[in-house]
TrEMBL record, chain A:
PANTHER family: NADH DEHYDROGENASE [UBIQUINONE] 1 ALPHA SUBCOMPLEX SUBUNIT 8, NADH-UBIQUINONE OXIDOREDUCTASE. GO terms for biological process: mitochondrial electron transport, NADH to ubiquinone. Accessory subunit of the mitochondrial membrane respiratory chain NADH dehydrogenase (Complex I), that is believed not to be involved in catalysis. Complex I functions in the transfer of electrons from NADH to the respiratory chain. The immediate electron acceptor for the enzyme is believed to be ubiquinone. Keywords: Disulfide bond, Electron transport, Mitochondrion, Repeat, Respiratory chain, Transport. The keyword Mitochondrion applies. Belongs to the complex I NDUFA8 subunit family. This is CHCH domain-containing protein. Residues 114-147 form the CHCH domain. Its main location: mitochondrion. Pfam families: CHCH. It is found in: Mitochondrion. It comes from the Eukaryota. Coiled coil: none annotated.
TrEMBL record, chain B:
It is found in: Mitochondrion inner membrane. Keywords: Electron transport, Membrane, Mitochondrion, Mitochondrion inner membrane, Respiratory chain, Transmembrane, Transmembrane helix, Transport. It is a single-pass membrane protein. Pfam families: MWFE. The lineage of its organism: Eukaryota, Fungi, Dikarya, Ascomycota, Pezizomycotina. Accessory subunit of the mitochondrial membrane respiratory chain NADH dehydrogenase (Complex I), that is believed not to be involved in catalysis. Complex I functions in the transfer of electrons from NADH to the respiratory chain. The immediate electron acceptor for the enzyme is believed to be ubiquinone. PANTHER family: NADH DEHYDROGENASE [UBIQUINONE] 1 ALPHA SUBCOMPLEX SUBUNIT 1 (PTHR17098:SF2), NADH-UBIQUINONE OXIDOREDUCTASE MWFE SUBUNIT (PTHR17098). The chain crosses the membrane at residues 7-28. InterPro entries: NADH_Ub_cplx-1_asu_su-1 (IPR017384). GO terms for cellular component: mitochondrial inner membrane. Belongs to the complex I NDUFA1 subunit family. This is NADH dehydrogenase [ubiquinone] 1 alpha subcomplex subunit 1.
Amino acid sequence: MRFHCTFGVNFWTFESFQPNTAAMANREARFNQTVLVDTTPMPDHIPKVEEIGATSAPLLSASYFIGDRCKAYNDDFMKCKDESNGRGEFDCLKEGRKVTRCAASVIKDINTHCLDQFKAHWECLENNNHQLWECRRPEVQLNSCVFDKLGLKKTLPGAPEGQVPVHLRPKQKYAQYPGPQW
Amino acid sequence: MGVPFEALLPYGIIITMFGVSGYGLHYVKRFANDGKKARWNRDLWDRQMMERDQRITGSFRGQSSNHQAPTGFDVSNPWKIESRIY
């Protein structure tokens, strides 16, 4: 169903702004009024996986390390979803379990080896609206600890060549503290 | 020639009242955010992550770095129910 707004402009006719959704499950967005919590567990023929218990700030703090160790699994999962013509929720459960287990292993390792630096970083993020540029000092310590103990390195995918990546510049634009953060 | 002190009383009242409302809002916001600074400029991703935080820790601002979700987390995901118009 097309939604025509009253300003005389039909936003939905700008097809070029929308991604190619021919192969994806596509339906229009609606506001939801209520939620339903269905506590029926998954059927037995679907293998179980331990869900990740880390919340938003620790996940953001560990995200680049998860990406470093789990890149192959993540890419595999995205490729599977891409190729399954909208049935990815059913067909890619095996790949999804691998993604979950890999990310959980990274978080478990960071908790084991770099708990103090990890905690300092995600508490800083949680207190600064989850903005990475406010927390470079704990981030540098976390990065060096994780590289020493686990061998995982933070790299920014798609960063331009020949420049210092933004997380390695001592002075951070837009940060509340204007000087060098470490 | 000196200014009579009565002329400064309104300024005292103004400063006090702005101070009360400012500090009051500060403490109310901190109280509502579990003693942390309030989140701002949240988008859909941030909001749904905060809902997930609430499912894990019981509070929208609570944080936990466990690698293992608490019991019942895998069945506490709410379905968003929409009203149909056709």
